[in-house]
Design goal:
With 541 residues, this protein is mainly alpha-helical. It has 3 domains: 17-375, no CATH class; 376-424; 426-540, STAS domain (Transcription Regulator spoIIAA, 2-Layer Sandwich), CATH 3.30.750.24. Helix content is 65%, strand content 6%. The longest helix has 33 residues, at 253-285. The termini are far apart. Keywords: Membrane, Transmembrane, Transmembrane helix. This is SulP family inorganic anion transporter.
Length: 541
């Protein structure tokens, strides 16, 4: 079951299903995957419709996304257990996209995002996306949870707005408050009942499909008691029984230009979400995913989803974790989950009309609560000022500004924190706590420790310059310097020039081959600089 070796270069785009089949796949594995796939499908069915409705599109598009996108993610992906489909993290982006360029524009943006994800995988960018700092992911996830919950307030309370619901959270809250007179107590009762059933089953029957059971009970109660709340049927009509025939979106230049900014946002968010989900699956199972193969699969899934009228597909953490816990043996369970959802759609589509929107709002309220990593959030707030700053900036930007902006600025701040910490890790000291005199008493030997990059060079360069005012021979021991970048190498170039103007010499001790190569490329080979293997060679010289 575990992938314990690093994939070879030629195999990094190989779908995991081929790996599973090569290892041997029998009837027992198929039975386990069928059970896991059915379990995930039962979870995905109400969730797909709820996310689609919250995103501003019809519930059927959520099912198309799960069926087409979910199948392709598992069939082509680089993770054994990844489950693809519509994700709560996309709700705010998708709804904003629909408001800006319409449903057809959303479908085109999804198609273009698929192309960009394939390109990102082909360029092997998946390895780098995984380096997003932990405070950024926690702040981003918590911000998404707040946005998801805010998007469900209207249906939770059965409010009727005078116009479209605003996307910005402050304007949204103002609009909802203005509609408080339209509060429907029955809607809140239905939503609260759904939440209570889900939480109760989670506590007393953890293996039961709580979301589906809660939605079925709420739908039956509303239909039998004739409760006056809005349902899928009253708002969207009857659902189709099968996905539509595939059709290319409008690929005219004006349409592409309008959709491209949204496609870029979908690509960034989708890549992060799917690879985080794959990492979670790895941690639960002991497997190892192929990040670039996963990006390519996500791209193909988004293109396929768009062809059938669906929207953004990504790896879904909750459904992926459910898949692992249900005993999945590999990607077949994800493919079967998509086929099970298709079967449910073909058989039970007319019954979906009875589902109350308040019930689906209750489901998404639970999703939002579970998404918010509350303990991790509080832990990071207490851990250090730097981590707390990155966390809060990311969280506040996601909630009040923009998802992509929150990720990018949070990542940049996380990078600055890392640079500051690495700079502090770099040390400069007199060798053996004292200068080593030359024959005329005019030599200083300095030992550096840690990576010498632009952050360290900026902090420590002034120290070296002050020391360089004294000796004729300036000796720098780089034995404990594992790497040096161009900024760090340039600081030595400036030091060597300064020594040359004073008729002095810079002596470099113990530079590793990559470090020496970087110094020579910067121009030190053209100056009176001596490279020696160790301090013993210095004394012999």
């Amino acid at each position: 079951m575990s992938d314990t070796t690093h994939p070879a270069k030629e195999a990094e785009f190989l779908p995991k299903i081929l790996t599973v089949l090569r290892e041997g796949y029998g009837a027992r594995d198929l039975r386990a995957d069928a059970l896991a796939g059915l379990t995930v499908a039962i979870v995905a069915l109400p969730l797909s419709m709820a996310i689609a409705i919250a995103s501003g599109v019809g519930p059927e598009r959520g099912l198309y996304t799960t069926i087409i996108g979910g199948f392709l993610v598992s069939a082509l992906g680089g993770s054994r257990f990844q489950i693809g489909g519509p994700a709560g993290a996309f709700i705010v982006l998708v709804s904003a996209c629909v408001m800006a360029i319409g449903v057809q524009g959303l479908i085109l943006a999804t198609f273009l995002s698929g192309l960009l994800l394939i390109a990102a995988g082909a360029l092997r960018l998946g390895t780098y996306i995984r380096f997003i700092p932990y405070p950024v992911t926690v702040g981003f996830t918590a911000g998404i949870a707040v946005i998801i919950f805010a998007s469900q307030i209207r249906d939770l309370f059965g409010l009727t707005l005078s116009g479209p619901e605003p996307g910005e959270i402050i304007e949204k809250v103002e609009s909802l408050w203005a509609a408080r007179a339209t509060f429907t107590p029955q809607a809140l009762i239905v939503a609260a009942g759904v939440i209570a059933v889900i939480q109760g089953l989670k506590r007393w029957r953890p293996g039961a499909p709580g979301m589906l059971i809660a939605v079925i009970l709420a739908s039956a109660a509303v239909a039998l008691l004739n409760v006056p709340v809005e349902t899928i049927g009253s708002k969207f009509g009857d659902l189709p029984r099968v996905p539509p025939a595939p059709m290319l979106p409008d690929l005219s230049p004006p349409a592409i230009l309008a959709a491209l900014p949204w496609a870029i946002s979908f690509t960034l968010l989708g890549a992060i979400e799917s690879l985080l989900s794959a990492v979670v699956a790895d941690g639960m199972s002991g497997a190892r995913h192929r990040s670039n193969a996963e990006l390519v699969a996500q791209g193909a899934a988004n293109m396929g989803s768009a062809l059938f009228g669906g929207f953004c597909v990504t790896g879904t953490i909750a459904r992926t974790a459910t898949n692992v816990r249900a005993g999945s043996r590999g990607p077949v369970s994800g493919m079967l989950h998509a086929l099970f959802v298709l079967g449910f759609m073909m058989v039970a589509a007319p019954l979906a009309a009875y589902i109350p929107l308040a019930a689906l709002a209750g489901v998404l309220a639970i999703v939002a609560w579970n998404m918010a990593e509350k303990e991790e959030f509080l832990h990071l707030l207490r851990s250090s000022r730097a981590d707390a700053m990155v966390l809060l900036v990311t969280f506040l930007l996601v909630v009040f500004r923009d998802l992509t902006e929150g990720i990018v600025i949070g990542f940049a701040l996380g990078g600055l924190v890392f640079i500051a910490r690495m700079s502090e890790a770099a040390e400069v000291a007199d060798h053996d706590s004292a200068p080593l005199p030359s024959a005329d008493g005019d030599r200083v030997v300095i030992r550096l420790r840690g990576p010498w990059f632009f952050g360290a060079a900026a902090r420590l360069g002034s120290i070296l310059e002050r020391i360089a005012d004294r000796p004729r021979e300036f000796v720098v021991d780089l034995t404990d310097v594992p790497m040096i970048d161009s900024s760090g190498a340039r600081s030595f170039l400036l030091l060597a020039r300064r020594m040359a103007r004073r008729d002095g010499v810079l002596i470099v001790i113990g530079a590793r081959p990559p470090v020496r190569q970087a110094l020579e490329h910067q121009g030190l080979a053209k100056l009176p600089v001596r490279f020696l293997p160790d301090l013993a060679a210095l004394d012999q010289g």
